[in-house]
Description:
Layout: H1 5-19, H2 22-39, H3 42-54, H4 60-83, H5 89-94, E1 96-99, H6 102-109, E2 114-118, H7 124-134, E3 138-142, H8 148-160, E4 163-167, H9 173-182, E5 186-190, E6 200-204, E7 207-211, H10 214-222, E8 225-234, E9 242-247, H11 262-287, H12 300-309
Parallel strand pairs: 1-9, 2-5, 2-8, 3-4
Antiparallel strand pairs: 6-7, 8-9
Helix pairs in contact: 1-4, 2-4, 3-4, 9-10, 10-11
Amino acid sequence: MSGxxxxxxxxxxxxxxxxxxxxxxxxxxxxxxxxxxxRGGARVEQLRDNLRRARPLASPAELDxxxxxxxxxxxxxxxxxxxxxxxTRERTVGTVRTLGMEPMREHLRSGRGVVAFLxxxxxxxxxxxxxxxxxxxxxxxAERLRPEAVFTxxxxxxxxxxxxxxxxxxxxxxxxxxRRARAGALVPxxxxxxxxxxxxxxxxxxxxxxxxxxxxxxxxxxxxxxxxVSVWYDGxxxxxxxxxxxxxxxxxxxxxxxxxxxxxxxxxxVGAMTQACADVLAEAVRAxxxxxxxxxxxxxxxxxxxxxxxxxxxxxxxxx
Length: 320
């Protein structure tokens, strides 16, 4: 494992990001993002296409500026991730502001588990570290990154932040999540990218997108409360900023339809609950597009074209 170039690069980045003063690290991250923007490529153009859905009336120049801001924000995410393990509790907690958090807190105080539906927005690792300190035990899942050594590094990193991390796709993961949610845990799940290939089709930013069914399915199976949570940065770029966690209204299952079978009822409930969460996420992305870190094909048309280019293979790409 120690000889794997990717794992070595990640370890080096973790060390270097903490070895230099934060303003220097942030400046270096922005410069790296600007180089990626100038060079272009498939990922940059996919980000452009994704952001065009969030700001359909933007001029080409405005959209290009938004892409540049988005790449800088993504680089900032990585810079903060590499520095997070060295942050004090005061730094982790003091740089977070919450909106609409009280209903979620009340459920957790009563012992009821909570499932949080998140997108790749802002810094979800910082949000989870704050939650583990200020709310309750945090249990989540992680996509299996390649090479395996990088996945192992991220498991170790997130566990150091106070999270219990289970592998995505493992047969025992969903039952374990149900048990944790029933025991009162907070289970934040990134859901705007369907990595299973069997997601729920929803309308998102005006188009069809498959999103992960896991949050709604887990809430239904465990009896936990389901909340959409939006995460973004507030404050000028290039220096320490406040991370905002906004909790939307609790999403409830629709009334039961006696004309439907139990299986049909559950499928309809998962679809309706996922759509309600996607609607909240869409508003957050429209309001804070540069904090939305999705550089992969997401919308149905883009996914189909990417699969056609790769001969039918999944067009996913790894993300943290």
